[in-house]
Structures
1.
Amino acid sequence: HAKVSGRNQYQFFSKDMNRKAKSRLELETRMRRALAQDEFVVYYQPKVSADADTIVGAEALIRWMDPERGMVSPGEFIPVAEESGQIEAIGNWVLLHSCLQNKAWQEAGLTPIKVSVNVSARQFHSRALLDSVVQVLEQTGLDPKWLELEITESMLMNDVDTAVRKMKALRDLGIGLSIDDFGTGYSSLSYLGRFPITTLKIDRAFIADVDTNPKTAEIARAIIGLSRGLNLEVVAEGAEIEAHISFLRDNGCDTVQGFYYSRPVAAGEFEKMMRQKVMAHA
Ligand code: C2E
Ligand code: MG
Ligand code: MG
Ligand code: MG
């Protein structure tokens, strides 16, 4: 290895940082344009009743149709939006559009379903969240029982009392609250009884090997049992194969979401699935 002087190292490092900061800034600029130019789309992934194969809900998942780069996944831009503060505007956009769409499906005479919207940490902690939800419900006329927010454990743990107060205020509006990716965060089980939630969503890491790993299967069973004991709805995410579905059905998991039934799809395609009544698997 050639000897590198401290000075050269410094220059290399700062060039790299410059490049990162620049592409980061470009992403932020493109996101701002994306919102203004309607490049975001809400996709919907069905939540299916495991024993009836009927759609009982949907998770709203944002997609970005970037004219230059094609579809960008939320894993790429949501964390940046979260840091730059753009998540509040984007999050409100998703909330509004999901509720408008759900209301439109109801007015078209389809069997009502609950739509779940992801809320990021920054949105959850924002003072504006409650007002935004109130405003969207008013604006769309959606009955609050058809809206659920998905939050994660890690958002709740810094200041549990404040989080509980916020959750209660949201629940008082009549909407549902779900803990997403349950089992991967670091919340203590002792808090679970204090959280005014309606749903637990078992993280897909557990579902992935329920059919092959007896210990994982036991943990999944325990989460299902815990949900039942606490009178919560339980949703399994990431069910991909028949073996996952049969495990979940046999172990009393009400609701299943995953590629087995369908990937997240555009609203029009989702509506077609709703009209079919019974889900075929993908
Ligand atoms: P999440 O809320 O846990 O959403 C579930 C993710 O798992 C989605 O990825 C979905 O497409 C994927 N998934 C569903 N079924 C399966 C399966 O059977 N197998 C596998 N491998 N994956 C499955 P997606 O849409 O890429 O979203 C990733 C994450 O981005 C979400 O995780 C959520 O944290 C975030 N996100 C998506 N949309 C929004 C949004 O509108 N607002 C906020 N704040 N975050 C969002
Ligand atoms: Mg989610
Ligand atoms: Mg999840
Ligand atoms: Mg996740």
2.
Amino acid sequence: MRPLEELTRPNIWALKPYSSARDEYSGNEAKVFLDANENPYNNPLNRYPDPLQKGLKARLAQIKGVAKENIFLGNGSDEAIDLAYRCFTRPGTDNVVAIEPTYGMYKVCADINNIEYRPVLLDQDFQIKSYKLLKACDKHTKLIWLCSPNNPTGNNLNRNEIVKTIECFDGLVIVDEAYSDFSQERPLRLEIDKYPNLIVLNTFSKAWGCAAIRLGMAFADKKIIDIFNKVKYPYNVNALTQKNALEALAEPYEVDKWIKIILLERSRMIDAFKLLPSCEKVYPTDANFFLAKMHDAQTIYDYLKSNGIIVRNRTHVSLCDDCLRITIGSKTENNELLAALRQY
Ligand code: PMP
């Protein structure tokens, strides 16, 4: 790995971050707060939230098996994706390498930040080869984007190839594990201590059932987390989100229950799709969705839409010709989709 100073955007390395009076306040000793120009009335929402979300991180550390200083929290994992560009890439000079197809925001954020985006096509079985990713890199490549289980293909990427990529690349590797709660594979976030150039992303939007509160996580070496914290907006995770997340974290068994039901529904849906005349193939999945190759995906997508059923049309995405991406919903929602497709 190149030194972190060399990987960081120079003005960000030199940045002196915004600091509030409460950043320096550590405990319960203060009883009067006249530092932040708040309204003293309208409890309990009148005060700014904890800028570093210490209570939430302490609880997350227990649940996720990662030390609290190795956790960054943001306004969805989309915030961490954007921050990775703003912290580690220089517009107009640097580039990033990413698997293709994958989650669209890696490219959108590259475009917003004026960073060259180099897609590397997955193999026909949607797998990566480390040497192909590394071959696409040059001295200006700062980040490699991986996603496992991958969106929209659904499969886990081969762990040996991920590890080889992390070990052989001298920049940062970001592995988006948004869907890892649905997979049997050991999460890579548990290995951040081994790899100083690894950033793992997680979210409350999927298995945790909290897409509305917008809370995403990045796990990495403390030096990387400190850079994210320097650049983020001071109060990027609002008080309601912090409170709701703590409530969700108090009931982790609920999440395990949902995951079990979703995985059972996933098998049922895949079996049913395989019997549909309109379905050519269902790809293997480790996520809460699956990719199905259809006989004319566009027409089926339009037909479903006219029946009030929205799925994700991926037919114009690389390697996904004629594919629809189907989220596993509730039993009722899934049955509605199947009933419509059986009538097609
Ligand atoms: N990563 C992946 C792979 C996703 O599919 C999504 C959302 N579809 C996200 C990140 C965004 O997650 P969040 O809601 O935490 O911003």
3.
Amino acid sequence: MGKFHIMDHPLIQHKLSIIRNKNTGTNEFREVVNEISNLMAFEVTRDMPLKDVDIETPMGTAHAKELAGKKVAIVPILRAGIGMVDGILHLLPSARVGHIGMFRDEDTLEPHEYFCKLPSDISDREVLVVDPMLATGGSAIMAIDALKKRGAKNIKFVCLVSAPEGVKALEEAHPDIDIYAAALDDKLENGYIVPGLGDAGDRLFGTK
Ligand code: PRP
Ligand code: URA
């Protein structure tokens, strides 16, 4: 059974308050989303396997550790997930990036897939699916369905703000994955997370 992790590091919580503020403009919003994603990646990769290595230091041999070479793919859900990619890549520069395009029908809130391009060895990689918002959970569930259909086995979902409804739906649909969020908010209202931060895609890209 996957776990639900809240990233309660003070820097993450402080930066989250900046992007929640309705007076924060596009530039700063984009920058801070990247900073939070970078900090979250630090925690999300905490269980990465290490192997023993001997390193010659100027003073002798250190019995040390290095990453065991597990390959990672970052998969943003378009559009808003794109805002989280650079911050994670900064920490994991050799990760590959796949893309899944999803949009929610504004009336029914049903997600629709319109694009999917993944690294060809996706089944060998640890996959970090990223999207700032987990609202009803429909987009995340469909994106993870699409990834599993194409062979992905080892998946984590990373978001900034989650709603209880979305966490429950995602846990029920994909009980094997871990969910990482910076916040669990109160509720959904007309498909939007309250208090949330508004429409993440519009705030990142300055559309409205
Ligand atoms: C937003 C957000 C998620 C989705 C979450 O995307 O970025 O992908 O809604 O909602 P859900 O959990 O109810 O599915 P949106 O459909 O607005 O598209 P965009 O990223 O292109 O703005
Ligand atoms: N998508 C967003 O961008 N914001 C929400 O509050 C819910 C879904």
4.
Amino acid sequence: MAVLVTGGAGYIGSFTVLQLLLADYQVVVIDNLYNSSVEALERVKFLAGSKAKNFLAFYENDIRDKQGLEKIFAEQTIDSIIHFAALKAVGESSVIPLDYYSVNVNGTIELLQAAKKSDTCRSIVFSSSATVYGDATRIPGMIPIPENCPLDPTNPYGRTKFFIEQIIADHVNAERNAGKPWNAAILRYFNPVGAHPSGILGEDPQGVPLNLLPILGNVAVGKIEKLSVFGNDYPSKDGTPIRDYIHVIDLAKGHIAAVNYMKEHSDTPIKYWNLGTGKGSTVFDIIHAFSKTVGRDLPYEIKGRRAGDVLDLTADPSLANKELNWKTELTLQDACEDLWRWVSNNPDGYRKPYPASLNPQ
Ligand code: NAD
Ligand code: WQD
């Protein structure tokens, strides 16, 4: 029995595949490499050492390709899915919303249809996002954000996640009513950051980076002249917005905990868990932490607010802490140091293979 990881060559997917292999899960990956490279999977196998034998197959395939999916489910015995594959750029989602609905929503429906047809797979762990909460500060008492905070996504990307959460719940309920004990874990991530401490696995988006720490990484290696700080007039301690930055390795481990939980609780139809640290950091906290790691002040300039940004997205992760027996272990400083090792060792991302003779830590 294997776990099918969609989007497994991507940033969070590759770290999760590594954790799955290390935890002795057999893994099958599907990815169309739209925003990733197969080199990431080579490095995952390298880091997994002898456990790379648990990596069964990689399929370069679109999740909307019905025939491709059916072939994978026929060739492999899949018993659960971790579903990462998606388009994820918030701004772009307002420009090409139909593409976002096509990949994210239609892709999930095709995936569920193929899984249903296979009849071996009855569990899905889904990559949702804190963005489904929208501006939680609109409701008093909702910071840190608990899972029962009312959902109010404010952009097409967030709405794809919101709709998919409901589609998955409807599917699970229908299957259970038909006597097939499907279950699902909806994981709402806060801001994933960092890289592997070996410096050989990290985030390598196609095109320009859009998120704060990857941009700072590019400033540090001279690829971007300076960071634009989007607003310093928010009601926070230093005027910049607050986010909950979670190390990608802690996040990946949260997926293993969720897969284990769903296996052990086939009586539980659906669970919703926030994966975050519970600790908020401002943009200036991040600039200072990363500048300290790099050993010099990184240039920035204050610009106007970015449309759609909210003051505070800090998780209340206590439900996941308790039920999954999972909590974050790595710090923001760990994330900065790991990111720095990644960007300085791989200024061109995965485009140059890492020499296999170098031992990871
Ligand atoms: P990523 O872009 O690195 O990974 C997504 C992967 O999906 C990529 O490898 C891409 O090639 C693949 N993919 C895209 N469209 C596909 C398709 N049609 N068929 C098959 N594969 C396809 O992104 P990530 O940061 O690793 O995010 C993974 C998941 O987590 C996404 O669902 C994202 O929405 C969600 N998420 C990410 C963040 C974040 O800040 N990184 C936060 C919350 C939620
Ligand atoms: C973080 C902070 C910016 C860039 C996004 C998605 C969210 C989730 C995680 C997928 C904010 C500030 C940023 C810059 C800046 N992804 N910033 N200058 O917006 O919190 O969350 O990624 O689900 O849905 O919206 O992350 O890294 O873009 O921004 O000042 O050049 O950094 O204003 O306060 P965000 P981010």
